[in-house]
Each structure stands twice: as C-alpha cells, then as structure tokens.
Specification:
The complex is a heterodimer. Chain A contains 9 helices and 10 strands. Chain A is of the alpha/beta class. Chain A has 2 domains: about 60 residues, Alpha-Beta Plaits; about 180 residues, Rossmann fold (3-Layer(aba) Sandwich), CATH 3.40.50.12280. In chain A, strand 2 and strand 3 form a beta hairpin. The longest helix of chain A is centred in the middle third of the chain and has 18 residues. By secondary structure, chain B is an alpha+beta fold. Classes of the chains: A alpha/beta, B alpha+beta.
C-alpha cells in the first residue's frame, strides 16, 4: 500500500519533448562549433591537441568531425576564437558527412539522398517502433543512457517506441561500441534476423567512428564496417535526449536539425497525427 | 606507490613460493600483471596486507614458453593467469583450466603483448563453442548471450544445467575485448586520462583518479587539497549512481514497478546533478594528472540543497524497499558467497563486504581527501547473499552522501581561489607506479609506466574483472530465476572485465 501513494508523490515528471522543448536538453554541452574558414597557428595547435584527430586543417579552413569528437573541449581552450561549445542535444545526422562542420556542398547532396531513401523505407514504421540494442564494444555508459529512456522521465513508450528482446520483432537496431572483432558476427546475425524494412542507428562516438578507443588489434573504427548505418548519434556518451532525437529522426518523427544550428521545431504535427499524447 | 628499483625479484619458482608465503601470512591477492621488457616478460604480483601494498616480481625470459602457475596454491590468480596466457602467449604451467578468457586467438595467431614497442596485428579469433564440463543424464548447456534480452553489455554465460539448477556456470567475456591496454601505449599523459575514463565508463571518475594518482606517485607529486576534495565529491556521486543502477536491476527483476520508477527518477536526477557540476553526466573531464581541471561549475547552497533532496528521496524509497517482503524474499539466500570462499578468491568491494571481507581502500589505504573526512559506518555483513550485498549498498549510499556533503563544505571553505590551486604540473613523468581507488564495484588498481611524459604501459585492473571470477561460484543452490538478482547484486561492468 505505501508504494501506491509514493507513486503519486512526484506528479508528472515526464519530459514534454518532442512536442515541446525541454529546458534540460539545452543545459549541457551538445557539440562543438567550428567557425567558417578557421585558420592560423591557434587552429593548427587545436588540431594537434585533439585526442581523436577530429580536426582537419585544409586550404578552406579547419573542419571538425563531430563523429570523432569526444567533447573533451581541448580545441575550445586552445583556439577559443575558432571553436566553442554549443548547448543542445539534436546532434544526430542522417549521413556520416553531415557530422563534419562547416559543411560542404557535395556532402549536402548525399545527405538529401540519404534522407529521401530512409523516408521511403520507414513509412511503415510510424505507428509503433520496436528497438533492439546490441553492444558491440561500448564502455558501458551508453547502456545507462539507453536504459534511462525506459524510465519515467523520458518514457519512450508514450511515443509508441518500445525495446524488444527479439530481433524478429525489431524495426530499429541501436548499436553501441567500437565494433570489436568478437562482436562483428553476433551483430551481423542480429541484423540479419530483423525483418525488412529496418533501420540501424550508431549510438555514440565509439559506434560512429571508433572514437578514442577504436583501432586496436581487437577493435574497429565504428560499426558501419559490419552493418549499414542510417543514423549517426555522436557523443561520448550521447545523452538520453540525444539518443531519443536519433530514434525520432530515424523514423521520420522529427526533421533534421540544420547543421551547427538550433534544431527545427520537433515534428509536433506528426505526433498529433498519430494521436499520441506526449 | 612508486615501483622503480623497489621490486623484490625472484626466479619463477621462488616467485610462486614468495606469493604463497605472503598469502599464507594473510595478505589478500590483488592481481598478477605482465609487462614486456628487456630480456623477457616481467610478472608482477600485487598483494595487500594491513593497509600496505606488497609486490613480488619475476622475469619470464625471452623464448620461455610459460611460467609455473600460482593458481593451484592461490585460486584468486586463476583469471589473471588466463588473461596473461591470452594477451602474452605465455602458458601458466599447472593451471587447472586454461581456456581463453579475453582473447580466444586462432592457433598460430600471435599474442598482442600490450606495452611492447610494436603495435599488434589485428587478432584472428576462434569463437567455436566450448566443450561441456558437466556430464550426466539430461544435462545440457544453455548459452545466454552475447546478445541478451534487454539493454545489456555483451557477455556470454554458459549455463550447464539439468534444468532449473545451475551446477556450473562459465562466462565468455572476450566479445567486447577492445584491446584497451594496447591503446594506452604511446599516448600523452592527458590523453591517457580520457582513455582511462572510457575503460569502464560507469566508473569514469574512479578510473581517472586511480590512473592520475599512479602518475602523481611516479612524479613524486601530490594533488592540491581542493583537487582532492573535488575528486571525493565526484567519486561519491558516481558510487551512488552505480549503487542505484544495481537497485534498479533488482526492482526490475522483482517486478516492483513503483520502486523501479522511483529509483529511475532518482538516478536520472543524480546524473543531471553530476552534469551540473562537471558538464558531463559521468563526471568526465574532472580529474586530470596533478589535480582537477578546475572548480565545480556550480557550488554553494544550490548544490547542497539538490544533494539533500536527492538523499531524502533515495533513503525514503530504499528504506521502504528493504521493508517490502515481496522484494526482500527474492534476495534472501540468493547467490550465497560464504566468507571462506570470498576470502579464498580475495573478493573486493560491496561483494566482499557482504561476505565479511571488510577492506575498503577509502579507509584502509586512504587516497584523495578520504583520510580526513568522517565516515558513516558501513556495517559488515557475513551472510554473503544478494540481500547482504543490497544492505551494504544501502549503507554505502548514506555514507557517500555524508562524504559528498563534507567535501562540498570544505570546498566552500577554501573559497573560489584555493591555496595550492586546482592542480600541479607533473612535468614529463618518467617512472612506474601503482595507483588505486575504491570504485563503486570495489578495489581498482592502475599499473602505469611512463617515459618522458609518454605512456609506455598502462594496465588497469577493475574490480569487475576480479569479482566476476567469483560470480561463477555463486550459484550453489540457485535456480534460473535467481540469475537476474545474483547478477544485479554483483553490479559488475563487462567493459571493465573485458578490457
């Protein structure tokens, strides 16, 4: 009996996201912004200081690969005029080149194609979506952030999104970790066991690019080597909101945030169309 | 603890005798670590006795195929010797069981030898199934994992069973072996911290502390007082988060829906508080070699208030949970680790403390600011079941809040510009040392050697690795449905086991 009253004690704790913005999502470091045409000795020093080699200095200025960034903030300290943190969590992208900032024209074309191709594939998934998670060599923190999605604060069930144990029921494969030699086969078997259409989300910088830990005798540089990735969620680890955004992006319930900018309003109309009360 | 020039060297047989002698004198076996070096591979045994770390060393000469195993006399060495066999290709002669643990290489594939000058070629794995150990009518092997039902880290448990009972359990942890030890080699000291934080991501702060304190010992330096306090604050919040995660897995398994939801809310709020203090929900980037990166992003009454509200909520719910019969009954008598077994396997952390092995580095080998902060007594338990482990965690949560508050108070008293600053410059460190921390899972050790500010060899030893070997022996009277509770009550991270 005491649990009944305790269950009511807090009132509603669940986030209004994606129908309305959630203030918490903007309260921590989301990603690093790299200014257009950043050059100079400071920028070169920032590139040299980056522990994952995410910054490349070319003729047109520096470009930062958010898919390799672990948010350590060294570039922001070394070259504060060219690199700075931006709050927010809507950092996932529909194509690998879209994580590189500032963007390039040919990349944008590829992103548009990827989006259109994914849109056609996920048409059938809008009413309810089942997720299957596979750890392919994570550090263990991504699993905490995934598990948080099932708790009362994020409560993805309210959006018609569920975790499932069986790959046979799964529409979306969430992969964490660098892609270790030992997990390549189990990961591929899980993917093959899922019915089509299916979507793969690489969750975290490790899964996107190998991050800081990949590239040894036993670990790869991201999971794209084993399964075709549709959505890339950077972060080391990404926050629960960041992962949720990636899932909604994958199934077309929100639009892609413009690169480096504030996210477009979430797909409120899509949610209403589903009759889902967020 | 600085090691250079202070090792007791033995020939391989003398080494076994020396370790066994220490062990018989009551020292607890902490680990066995291999490092490649001039003339062969050095084996370093680390033991703990009366608040001191003891070391013994031997050299396995180049060309020798192996070394006499410690395991027949010191069972706690079993997994260490299997790990050395996988990673260094050295055979522990006389070891009762040498099937691969972290890296099942194909015959002929060279061992990676982390710490050696040249990087290892990609490993070729042999993942074929293991032969059954238990024979008898109707006995079969149930393989659970590596892809498990739910959001879990990848690990495979081989359950040999006649149905329901679990007479024999084995773990195959190699699936997520990332070769982290090899990844450390050649990194700068600062990059090494970032990697240490990702060795066992749920215990990032403890790993960063153990790694950095090894470097500080090697450099003969000490972090300033303010840094030591901030390290305590973050380490204790991390402890609460991990213990809540363990409770969550219990309540989920027991179908305690309201308790599960409540604990999930507390855990999320705690992660948010950690991010308010550090910019990272896992406290990453706080600890740096020589101290901490800077003052907490928030301080004062707002943080104290948030801590107070969290503690009140968590304690209220835990007290009720531990008085809820339908919950407690599932844990009582599950996964019993008798004190004798815990001593033999040198259990650490909450698992050890629930089986009358009381060692806690925060009081027995104090580091950071622990020596001068007051503790709330964590009652030692001896029944060794999942319930005892849960009681230990509940006590430790109270203790962790008490420590956090003191650390915050003292930090406030030091002011925004504390004497000694937030860190000291270690310079280009050369030397070898052991560092440690009491992670939420238990004793964490880091063996670090650096030359001129570059890492040569880093060997982290997580409590998860040490205790998972004991997990295999915790099922004498249990059945399938107890598995989830026993696993949750050990509270281990597979990333920390697989390396």
């Amino acid at each position: 009996m005491p649990w009944v009253t305790r269950g009511l004690r807090e009132g509603i704790v669940t986030t209004p996201y994606p129908r309305h913005p959630d203030g918490y999502g903007r309260s921590f470091k989301g990603h690093v912004v790299c200014e257009e045409k950043a050059t100079g000795t400071e920028v070169a020093a920032a590139a040299a200081a980056c522990p994952t080699g995410a910054i490349e200095v070319g003729a047109g200025g520096a470009r930062l690969d958010r898919g390799r960034c672990v948010l350590c903030g060294r570039c922001c300290e070394v070259a504060p005029g060219s690199f700075h943190f931006q709050p927010g969590f809507e950092t996932a992208a529909l194509a690998r080149p879209a994580l590189v900032v500032p963007g390039r024209e040919p990349d944008d074309g590829e992103v548009a194609r990827a989006r259109e191709q994914l849109r056609r594939r996920v048409k059938a998934l809008r009413r309810s979506v089942y997720l299957r998670h596979v750890d392919a060599g994570s550090d263990g923190s991504e699993e905490w952030e995934l598990a948080a999605l099932m708790g009362p604060i994020y409560d993805i069930n309210r959006l018609g999104i569920f975790f499932t144990a069986s790959p046979r029921h799964a529409d979306v494969l969430l992969v964490t970790g660098v892609g270790t030699s030992g997990m390549l086969v189990p990961l591929r078997l899980t993917y093959d066991a899922m019915p089509s259409p299916k979507v793969v989300i690489a969750v975290g910088t490790d899964a996107v690019s190998g991050g800081l830990t990949g590239g040894t005798y036993a670990s790869g540089k991201g999971v794209a080597a084993a399964v075709p990735v549709d959505v890339f969620v950077p972060g080391s680890p990404p926050s629960p909101f960041g992962i949720l955004y990636g899932i909604l992006l994958a199934v077309g319930l929100v639009g892609q945030a413009p690169r480096g900018g504030e996210a477009r309003p979430a797909g409120a109309e899509a949610m209403e169309g589903k009759g889902v009360a967020p | 603890m600085r090691l250079d020039g202070r090792l007791d060297w033995h020939d391989p047989r003398g080494f076994v005798r020396a370790v066994v002698k220490r062990s018989n004198e009551g020292a607890r076996f902490c680990g066995l670590f291999a490092s490649p070096g001039a003339g062969g591979t050095r084996l370093l045994a680390v033991l703990s006795h009366a608040g001191q770390l003891l070391t013994e060393a031997t050299l396995v000469p180049e060309g020798a195929g192996g070394f006499p195993a410690l395991t027949p006399a010191v069972p706690a060495a079993a997994w260490y010797e299997r790990e050395i066999r996988d990673l260094f290709g050295l055979e522990p002669y006389g070891h009762p069981r040498t099937d691969p643990l972290v890296l099942p290489l194909r015959p002929g594939s060279p061992a990676p030898r982390p710490g050696s000058a040249k990087p290892a070629a990609p490993a070729e794995l042999d993942t074929s199934p293991l032969p059954a150990h238990v024979q008898g009518e109707g006995v079969f092997t149930l393989s659970y994992g590596p892809v498990r039902s739910g959001v879990f880290e990848s690990v495979e448990y081989l359950i040999e069973t006649p149905g329901e009972r679990i007479p024999h359990l084995r773990a195959r942890v190699f699936y997520k072996h990332r070769g982290m030890e090899a990844r450390f080699a050649g990194l700068s000291l600062a990059d090494g911290t970032l990697l240490a934080e990702r060795y066992e991501g749920v215990a990032s702060v403890a790993h960063a502390i153990a790694y950095c304190s090894a470097l500080e010992s090697a450099a003969g330096a000490q972090a300033p007082p303010a840094a030591e306090l901030l390290r305590v604050l973050h380490a204790e919040l991390e402890r609460v988060a991990n213990h809540l995660d363990s409770v969550l897995r219990h309540t989920e398994g027991a179908g305690q829906a309201v308790a599960n939801a409540r604990i999930a809310i507390h855990k999320e709020r705690l992660q948010r508080l950690r991010a308010d203090l550090s910019g990272s929900r896992f406290g990453r980037g706080v600890v740096v070699p020589g101290g901490v990166a800077g003052p907490p992003l928030q301080g004062g009454d707002a943080v104290l208030g948030a801590l107070g509200r969290l503690e009140k909520g968590i304690r209220g719910d835990l007290d009720l949970l531990m008085a809820t019969p339908s919950f407690v009954d599932r844990l009582r008598g599950a996964g019993v680790v008798p004190p004798e077994l815990a001593r033999e396997r040198a259990a650490v952390g909450p698992v050890g403390r629930a089986s009358a092995q009381g060692e806690d580095l925060r009081s027995d080998r104090p580091y950071a600011a622990y020596a001068r902060l007051g503790r709330v007594d964590v009652q030692e338990r001896g029944s060794g079941d999942a319930l005892a482990r849960q009681y230990v965690r509940a006590d430790e949560i109270v203790d962790a809040f008490h420590l956090s508050r003191q650390a915050l108070d003292e930090l406030e008293a030091l002011g925004p510009q504390p004497a000694g600053g937030w860190s000291v410059d270690l310079g280009p460190v050369t030397g070898e040392a052991l560092g440690w921390a009491e992670a939420p899972q238990g004793e964490l050790l880091y063996l670090v050697s650096a030359e001129d500010g570059r890492l040569v060899r880093v060997k982290p030893r997580s409590a998860s690795f040490h205790n998972l070997a004991l997990f295999m022996a915790a099922f004498p009277t249990d059945i399938f449905t107890d598995f989830v509770f026993i696993e949750a009550s050990f509270g281990l991270s597979i990333a920390g086991v697989a390396g």
